[in-house]
Amino acid sequence: MGSVGAKEVPVLLNADGLRIDGRRLDELRPIQIRAGPLPQADGSAFVEWGQNKVMAAVYGPREVHPRHLQQSTKAVIQCRYNMAAFSVDERKRPGLDRRSQEISKVIAEAFESVVFAEEFPRTSIDVYIEVLQANAGTRCAGLVAASVALADAGIPMVDLLPAVAVGKIDNAIALDLKKEEDNFGQADLPMALVPQSGRLVLLQMEGHMTEPELAQALELGVGGCRVIHEKMKAALRERYSTAPLAAGAA
Ligand code: UDP
User: Fold this and answer.
1) Which of 8, 16, 41, 153 is 20 to 30 A from residue 183's alpha carbon, by CA?
2) CA 104, 110, 115, 119 torsion: positive or negative?
3) 148 in ligand 1 pocket by Cβ < 6 Å?
């Protein structure tokens, strides 16, 4: 442990260049994605990503509530990201705080750039993201879950939206920060990518990095998003693939 002021800072990168959980700098935490676990929703997905556990449910296109949000030319995309009170070590106050509102807003805006909303005027597409267990990177896990849930609901989109946070720990750029790295690292940079066009539709940064570090972080994050994109597609294929015909069957 080193010390900055009164705060004890753990060593985040060992002499072999490995992180506290043994990962290399360019390594993702294990990710499992399940499409369609909630039959009552129009679309749903459950994502386990490291120690994050996130459920997403999509309803719609359906009637808009509250009605004054209705738009005559396209669907409104309403998103609610919520962290369960039991999702973190120190109990979180239940309900939507400023952080949840901000995350809900940036996720809705990211989806606005990929969903063909003009196909469903005067309707609402409602996206619910519930974080059941949190260990940093929950907005990205929420985006991934919600994106698979939107596809599961049959909402037409340009592409799925893989997302990941890149950060800076012990002066090195690292993919997919876990909680200690997020807490004690020097920067955190969540991003979401439209794989087809290479466009970033969410990019936020806390902390500081130099311009070359930022370029490196973007490259690492885009590569991570492409790996996650494959896992998202595999989850949807698994949900919708039919069992192969038995050998010899007509
Ligand atoms: N966190 C927490 N309590 C809170 C908000 C966040 O313990 O009220 C933790 C949680 O593990 C979260 C992490 O801090 O995943 C990082 O939060 P941040 O705001 O950076 O968002 P995230 O990385 O989850 O998208």
Assistant:
1) 16
2) positive
3) no
Reduced to 3 states, what is the DSSP secondary structure of residue 7?
strand
- Please list, in sequence order, all residues whose beta carbon lies within 8 angstroms of the beta carbon of residue 197, skipping any fewer than 6 positions away: 158, 159
Closest CA to 29 of 246, 250, 243, 177: 177
Q: Is the CB of 179 under 6 A from ligand 1?
A: yes
Within 8 A by CB and 6+ apart from 97, the residues are none
Predicted TM-score of the model (pTM): 0.94
Task: Measure the CA–CA gap between 153 and 58, rounded to whole angstroms.
Answer: 7
User: What domain count does the chain have?
Assistant: 1
- Model pLDDT for residues 93-151, shown as the tens digit of each residue: 887 899 999 999 999 999 999 999 999 999 999 999 999 999 999 999 999 999 999 99
What's the length of the chain?
250
Query: What is the extent of the structural domain holding 103?
Result: 31-238
Give the rounded distance of the alpha carbon of 2 from its chain centre: 32
How far does residue 138's CA lie from ligand 1's centre (Å)?
Answer: 7
Query: Is 71 within a domain?
Result: yes
User: Residue 70 sits in a domain of what CATH number?
Assistant: 3.30.230.70
Q: How many CB atoms lie within 10 A of CB 68?
A: 6
Task: Please report, as a single letter, which amino acid is at residue 193.
Answer: L
For residue 138, which atom of ligand 1 is closest to its CA? Answer: 24
95 falls within a domain: yes
